[in-house]
Amino acid sequence: MLSRVGLSIRRWRRRFSRSEWIAKLLGLSTSGRQPHAPGLILIQIDGLAHPELLKALSGGRMPFLKGLIRKEHYRLEHMFSGIPSTTPAVQAELFYGVRQAVPAFGFLIHETQKLGRMYDPEVAALVESRDMFKHRDPLLRDGSCYLSLFRAGTKTGEAHFCPADQGWGPALRSASPWTIAVLILTNLWSLIRTAALIVVELLLSLVDCIRGVMQGQNLLKELMFVPTRVGITILSREFCTMGVKVDISRGLPIIYVNLLGYDEQSHRRGPRSAFAHWVLKGIDDAIARIWRAAHASDRRHYDVWIFSDHGQEQTKPYEEVFGRSLGDALSETLSDLAKPPEIEPGQSRHGVQLERARLFGSEWMDKKDIEKQEESVDYSTSKTPLALTALGPLAMLYNLELGNISREQVARKIVEQAHVPLVLYRVDPTSAKSPVHGWWKHGPVRLPEDGRKLMGDEHPYPEQSIADMISLCSHPDSGDFMMYGWCSSEEQPLTFAMENGSHGAAGPRETHAFALMPKDIQPPDPRLGYWRPQDLRTAARAYLRGAHPMKLDEHQLPQKTLRVMTYNVHSCKGTDGTLSPQRIARVIARYRPDIVALQELDVKRKRTGGLDQAERLARLLSMDVHFQPAINLNEERYGDAILTHLPAKLIKKGILPGPPKGKGRLFNPAADEPRGAIWVEVEHNGSKIQVINTHLGLSRAERLLQVDALLGPEWLSNPRCKGERILLGDFNALPTSAECKRLCGYLRDAQEQAPRHSPKGTFLKVRIDHIFLSAGIVIKKVRVPRTVLTRQASDHLPLIVDIEVPFRPEASKIP
């Protein structure tokens, strides 16, 4: 009855869903209702390093993300962004599995010998059309993306606020005035809320503008940043959040959104600044709204993964430290070449120094200047124009005519006279053992031999960074000389742009991203201790295929600790009406039990699609299964099971006594169900443990007979039932009932005896699922996880107990 009421409420909520109405008004396609099918939402927090996330969590800036870790069984993982630590490089690795697709955000395109930036539609399209992307399955096929530099397999109109598709797709641009009016009315509260946020952010921006001018910042730049800040932190975030919710209501299989606010503010004031951390509050709220919409979806079973593409370093602008641009410094430093370069401030006569510019960047005024400079460059006069790109902490010098001077001499000059911390260049691999040479203030360097010295002891990924730096030197779009604003000899990293936060090179924070993942989503190689974007891609593809690993054989608890779970799975049919053994398996996998007792399993029953649920769950979890059918009608069965990855053997299974004649009958078909039990002997650390799983009847008289049977010579008092004993399952009885009191005369109620634990309900907030333990077992911890997933997966909550079983050396192994 309660399930039917809940389903009716969900249907009515769906009918009045604003996201559903937006999709219908705009004529957007849907994928149909597939509630058992997996869906994935990838939320990227641009530029947020792992250490800065920890700071934000401890400082209360991101309460929702903190709640995911504490309540929803998410795990915070380290992620190595790779080098270059830039959004396009990470997106290419995530979407296509292509590492180092580009050497930086701006570079000299080898096909055209023109300078390009990744926010330019033609450059992004050219990169995505290269051979390295061909014959690779794009991750976002049939999905959508927001603020991505690549289409990544999305259909026309599904790439929003991207270089190739400005704005919210053609559906909104082609909508009639009547449709727009209805959309405004149906989303009036959201628009009012957004307007209020804009006003607040505008006031904060003006205050910060005044503060910046008082600290010596350029007034014009500060004023130009005010609308940019409002646009990125409020408008882009709110529009993207609204769009993602619409796509969830449409049931798209995969949705990617990039939240830019923190990264942009960090470039302006620095990644550690209160200015940047303030933005995380709004990002946290946007993630909360997306997460709630995902878990309320009737079209798919969505998972939400949250990650960052890279971090940022707190930097000093090169021009501010040395009083001149890098272009000026290089012009003077290399003036004694046979053909000295003429590199003017910020540009060369055959190229242009690129400042970082993005689709929603604060450098739109610089973009205008850059475009004017590019118009004055005649690329037709030379196939190899001299060019300098300097974005963040990485600068690249192209096509420098050396004359009689060696590369080593050029690198040394740049370090010693232009004060660049590190310069690298590639050498002929046939004539040198080390593929990359360079110079820093301590003298010449060779890679990989001197990599550890360059990275320092505190770098989280020294070997990986050096490998990427070596590879990057051979990229066809990389410069002849790679100039880095950071190495271990520098206390304060430099950036070649006018910014206080920077990324794109090899610093310890800019390469240290994070991934916030559900605990059952394991990295492809857990031994590494970190993810790469390519690992995220591999895990995402496995999840969307329904084949993500849930192996539980590597227990996270100490070896002497045993984790036991009992769970009534309601035939794998959730409170939302969705039939999903995969979802039940995910609940179990998140808590990594050693022994699982399940009740109400269907095996080849027509009502649940003819699936053998016991076998399916065992296969998903890589566990052995023992099943006891309480109901056996031809090939259709229904009953209980024990799953474990430990050595185990079946001792007994059978039917328990039914209700006395003339008693216990209710107006409920379940009252006529036979009730059974299954007994398995499990070996753990040399000890044999007797585990009995049961599901008792609905009437008190029936349950009392069944309890007497379980305590009798056929089960717990059987001569073979020796050593430590565990009786668990759905007893349909409260702790104060005569049945439970009778059992507690022989065994201990785990919830009652657990230290520092208040007993919690497992069904409608009452305790009818129990784990009873023999006296020798030590109870370490009890939990009844009440998360969104556990509340949806079944009408019962799982009961989980961590125990220690005393070691008995006389126990022999199970034959």
How are the SSEs placed, and which strands pair?
Elements: H1 2-15, H2 18-25, E1 38-45, H3 50-58, H4 63-71, E2 74-80, H5 87-96, E3 106-109, E4 114-117, H6 121-128, E5 144-146, E6 159-160, H7 169-173, H8 177-186, H9 188-214, H10 219-250, E7 254-259, H11 261-269, H12 274-295, E8 301-307, E9 313-314, E10 316-317, H13 318-322, H14 326-333, E11 343-344, E12 347-348, E13 351-352, H15 364-375, E14 387-391, E15 394-398, H16 407-417, E16 422-426, E17 436-440, E18 443-447, H17 451-455, H18 462-473, E19 481-484, E20 494-495, E21 501-502, E22 512-518, H19 533-544, E23 561-568, H20 581-591, E24 595-603, H21 613-621, E25 624-633, E26 636-644, E27 648-655, E28 676-684, E29 687-695, H22 700-711, E30 724-730, H23 738-744, E31 748-749, H24 750-753, E32 769-773, E33 778-783, H25 788-793, E34 799-804
Parallel strand pairs: 1-7, 1-8, 5-6, 5-7, 10-20, 23-24, 29-30
Antiparallel strand pairs: 2-22, 3-4, 8-22, 9-21, 11-12, 12-13, 14-15, 15-19, 16-17, 16-19, 17-18, 23-34, 24-26, 25-26, 27-28, 28-29, 30-32, 31-32, 33-34
Helix pairs in contact: 2-8, 2-10, 5-19, 9-10, 10-11, 10-12, 11-12, 20-21, 22-23
Q: What is the gist of this entry?
A:
This protein is α+β, with helices and mostly antiparallel strands and 815 residues long. The chain has 25 helices and 34 strands.
What does it look like?
- The model is unreliable at 343-382 and 810-815 (pLDDT under 50).
- This protein has three domains: 2-98 and 137-145 and 172-314 and 511-544, Alkaline Phosphatase, subunit A; 325-498, no CATH class; 562-659 and 668-804, Deoxyribonuclease I, Chain A (4-Layer Sandwich), CATH 3.60.10.10.
- The protein starts with a helix and ends in an 11-residue tail after the last strand.
- Strands 2-22-8-1-7-5-6 form a seven-stranded mixed sheet, sandwiched between helices.
- The longest helix is centred in the N-terminal third of the chain and has 32 residues, at 219-250.
- The protein contains 25 helices and 34 strands.
- A hairpin with a 2-residue loop joins strand 25 (624-633) and strand 26 (636-644).
- The protein is elongated, with a radius of gyration of 31 Å.
- Helices cover 34% and strands 22% of the residues.
- It has 815 residues and is of the alpha+beta class.
